[in-house]
Amino acid sequence: MDSTALLRLRGIVKKFGSFTALNGIDLEIREGEFFTIVGPSGSGKSTLIRLLVGMDDLTEGTIWLRGERIDQTPANLRPTCMVFQSLALFPHMNVGQNIEFPLKLRKVAPQRRRERVNELLDLLRLPRSYYDKRIAQCSGGERQRVALARALAFDPEILFFDEPLSALDYRLRKTLEKELKDLHARTGKTFVYITHSLEEAMVMSDRIAIMREGRFEQIAVADEIYNRPVSRFVAEFMGEVNLFEIRADAGGTLSGKALEIAPDARLDALAPGTEALLMVRPEYLRFDGPGERFEFALSGTLHGEYALGSRIQYEIETETGMVTVEKLREDRVRLKEGQPVRVGFDAADTHVIAEPA
Ligand code: ADP
Ligand code: MG
User: Fold this and answer.
1) Which of 78, 252, 99 is nearest to 157 (CA)?
2) How far is ligand 2, taken at its centre, from the CA of residue 38, in Å?
3) Tell me, what's the pLDDT at 83?
4) Is the beta carbon of 57 within 6 A of some atom in ligand 1?
């Protein structure tokens, strides 16, 4: 058990009638961490956060904050705060009144409240004159900053975010992602962040948890989740991926549908007499050319080419299905649709997922 954990969850179960929304969650979050929970819609992300902030009761399990049990503590007495997708700002109050609202509830004196609002406006890089600005006159980005300032008002131990950027347009989202990451660094607070955007998770997080049907499928740093997913589900959730069936016979010889495998190719992670999924991210596949030598190769025909900003994606139809190859725009390979192509990769570019095809 990690003794430095700020927040610790043990055996969390949440049922709605006969439906189990959370099915045995164990988790430790470290102080100062930016921890992100990613998962498909309905996987239980919001339900988990609602339990953590005390908006709902758990069915089984315990929640500990700094070694103190808090799962029976009422929401308003928990040193945590939540930022919702909808922000939930009060439209009839001005910026300052919104930010100081949690302080008023805690009966902080007006003078001190005003000082604190100024500190928070500075922290969020909003002009102090915004104290009197009406919420309706604030832009989308400014409202996000006001909501953040309000969430930080009473100096909570942990901030929880439930998809706060998902309703915003791309540019504003990108700006606020960076601001949030920066705010995290400046405040040193613990952030627990929910998103269904993989990109958002990769940009901001120290660690990522992948949620599936009320459980965590994998918890790790972004790089590990991307390069060494534990399952097909995680691999596919974390962006484009090629998965090939692979077998090692009792003597260790490798074979796989549609794969040409060099006799000296080795996969240390695949035990003799077993089968698994061989994962290769699209950026690791190479087109055949003079002097090229592959440990693993496939042949097929070019199905299509797609420009994705700075990258180009190629789809290749093979006997084992569509294979995706990605290149930087400057490394673009000129190919015609329907043209025969051969692509390949080496064992070092792969990851073995111990899951039958
Ligand atoms: P996510 O935030 O990952 O999209 P939720 O945590 O909101 O998912 O929901 C997880 C599951 O629990 C969903 O199937 C949802 O319908 C169900 N659920 C959530 N809240 C309730 C509730 N109050 N009553 C019944 N079912 C609920
Ligand atoms: Mg949700």
Assistant:
1) 78
2) 10
3) 73
4) no
Are residues 193 and 37 in contact, defined by beta-carbon separation less than 8 angstroms? Answer: yes
Rounded Cα distance between 31 and 182, Å, is: 17
Ligand 1 neighbour 18 (Cβ under 6 A)? no
Q: Does the pLDDT at position 357 exceed 80?
A: no
Domains and CATH numbers, the chain: 5-232 (3.40.50.300), 240-353 (2.40.50.140)
Any ligand 1 atom below 6 A from CB of 222: no
What pTM was estimated for this model as a whole?
A: 0.88
Q: Which residue's CA lies nearest to atom 20 of ligand 1?
A: 47
Distance, in Å, from the CA atom of 331 to the CA atom of 311, rounded to the nearest integer, reads: 9
Looking at every residue in the chain, the average pLDDT score rounds to 92
Neighbour count for residue 260 (Cβ, 10 Å): 14
Q: How far is the CA of 19 from the centre of ligand 1 (A)?
A: 9
Average pLDDT of the segment spanning 126-153: 91
58 Cα to the center of ligand 1, angstroms: 13
Whether the Cβ atoms of residue 207 and residue 35 lie closer than 8 Å to each other: yes
| Residues 181-231: tens digit of each pLDDT | 998 999 999 999 999 888 889 888 999 999 999 999 999 999 999 999 999
Q: Is the CB of 42 under 6 A from ligand 1?
A: yes
- Is any ligand 1 atom within 6 A of the Cβ of residue 40? no
Could you tell me the distance, in angstroms and rounded to a whole number, from the CA of residue 42 to the centre of ligand 2? 7
pLDDT in tens, 343-352: 999 999 999 9
| pLDDT for 167 | 77
What are the contacts of 120-124 at 24+ separation with CB within 8 A?
120/149, 120/152, 120/153, 121/95, 121/149, 123/149, 123/152, 123/183, 123/186, 123/187, 124/148, 124/149, 124/183
**pLDDT tens, position by position, 17-32:** 999 999 999 999 999 9
